[in-house]
Amino acid sequence: MLTAPQFSPAALQTVRDRIDRAARQVGREPTEICLLAVGKQQPASMLRAAYDAGQRDFGENFAQEGAAKADELADLADLRWHFIGHLQANKTREVAERFAWVHTVDRERIASRLSAQRPHHAPPLQVLLQVRLADEPAKGGIAPDAVASLATVVATLPRLRLRGLMCIPPPAPTLEAQRAPFRELRVLLERLNANGHQLDTLSMGMSDDLEAAVMEGATIVRVGTAIFGARPRD
Ligand SMILES: *Cc1c(COP(=O)(O)O)cnc(C)c1O
Question: Measured between alpha carbons, how far is 213 from 219 in angstroms, rounded to an integer?
Fold first, then answer.
């Protein structure tokens, strides 16, 4: 018989402990790192249980799925929604209206639409540029050598606030191999800041490589399975 998955506060605590340990190993303050709970395919009841355990930032990959959960959890006023999926032009309105953060901006057209569609009563949409590093299998993402010009454009859009960069590297077998692309992303961010930007956010690291990401300066780690267990349809 199929039983509904249960939220495990212990699993959430284990992830927090992993972040803390990795941060201390490199002399960082664990409080500098935001844990984003990735709830794709998980029911709103799971997210509510995580909220009750103290979780506040939630990531969704599909605009409609995220908006439906936001409706179900509308009573949780201080919950923050982050859009982390591949963004198509016909889905920007939902994202601009319903999310606080977008991690996956990778072209000017998407950025302009988000800015134009961001409601005026809402604070600016917090934006990260998704960078496709070498060998990255993910859909979307901008090449590293095109990041600077996209950043310049996005920084001028009135309803967006450019905060930093995001990446999804392929799985790697060792801690050292995992760290290499995260280091690359950090160096890219440092270069943008040397050229006048004031970016403070690196969204990198998932269930299997969050330690490597924290060691290289992640300020947001995006974790699904290690918090909620396997996804129903994976
Ligand atoms: C699904 C997903 C995650 C979480 O992955 P896990 O391996 O389950 O932790 C993080 N980031 C993005 C962009 C995702 O799509």
Answer: 9
